[in-house]
Amino acid sequence: MExxxxxxxxxxxxxxxxxLAEDMKQQGIHLVPIIDAGVKIEKDYDVYEExxxxxxxxxxxxxxxxxxxxxxxxxxxxxxxxxxxRKWFGKKYAVLTEQGIDGFWNDMNEPAIFYTEDRLADTCAxxxxxxxxxxxxxEYFAFTGMVAGLNGNIGDYDKFYHNVDGKMVKHSEVHxxxxxxxxRSAFEALQEICPEKRTLFFSRSSYIGAHRYGGIWQGxxxxxxxxxxxxxxxxPALNMAGFLFTGCDTGGFGCDTTEDLMLRWLQYSLFTPLxxxxxxxxxxxxxxxxxxxxxxxxxxxxxxxxxxxxxYSEFLKAALHDEMMFRPLAFDFPEDAEAAQVExxxxxxxxxxxxxxxxxxxxxxxxxxxxxxxxxxxxSYDNYETEILPKGHHYVPxxxxxxxxxxxxxxxxxxxxxxxxxxxxxxxxxxxLGYADASYELYTDNGVSPDPExxxxxxxx
Length: 461
Prior knowledge:
four-stranded parallel sheet
């Protein structure tokens, strides 16, 4: 973006975005830019001018365009509950698809509001009073509380309105529909802009039913051990709401991660459909090569690519058959009272169970098996051990540089040689990992056709 303006390109930093996008694709890398909900208020900026001219922005109580503030400073918010506004905003994605962009993520679309001008003015006036003399502890806490209270203040969502079939509706009454309809705006437009292919699309804010339009990530998490578990517990809930393409920010978005936290997080998130490392500005730079144990981190990524045939196959099965990709143990063993108490293990598809480490300094963890399973202990895609464990409770040691997962009784999964990208995954290298006499039904498609059934292939391994 140029100064955080949607559907613009900073020509100083990216003088030829189209050529850059093509060069990256040749290396197996696809660019995925952010689109924010707030439209910068700036004269001669086409998105702003068109929105004002056509009444496409949310209104304040007096009928004027509501003003909030986000990354660009002062912004208007498109009224995505208006069909015409949705169609207008969605068509703007063509500005970037024409430059070779074929993936997007919608952000800040609750919508986030850093402050409103009236609340900022009132806060500054109160702060001026507080700082006019010697601030004591009470005044100091009042000062910090006022500043913190500017961002996402719930009262600000009562200050603007949507046009819903000619009726002005307060935003706070339809808040959860906003992000969903921004995603819908993009999805419907992209079906017209590039009808011959799928476009990778996910959003920060959404609502039940929006799985028809795109995936989501689980929001701005923290580099906290507890957030591995919280992310894991969200997976089946999101699946039940229809969202299959989801995941979290590996290593955490806010705060500073650590090497051991990153490695343990990788050992969880490499199983999720959305697998990415994403951190906030001002936090520790957390690319994997910045840590000491680069080898272990690299092996986890390779294992991810070895598992892609299984993960994608199970994703397709869940999508095409209206099933869940991730399930609590109790869903498959409803009569097992002990399985009903397990909240830190999940079935992944019909063959795997994952039980990640999510506690600092843990050298292993307790696992409950509702049936006999095969334990797989893996340091790399070609360096692993297996062991059959009976039904029941087990303590499983897990070193910091190894991945542990379980294959269900009499099941097996396809496992490939790792590749640099999904496009380079060689299915001819597939081998079955698991019980000796088990087979596996593999789902594949071309990954491009808008409807996966157009190119679906089912084979038995």
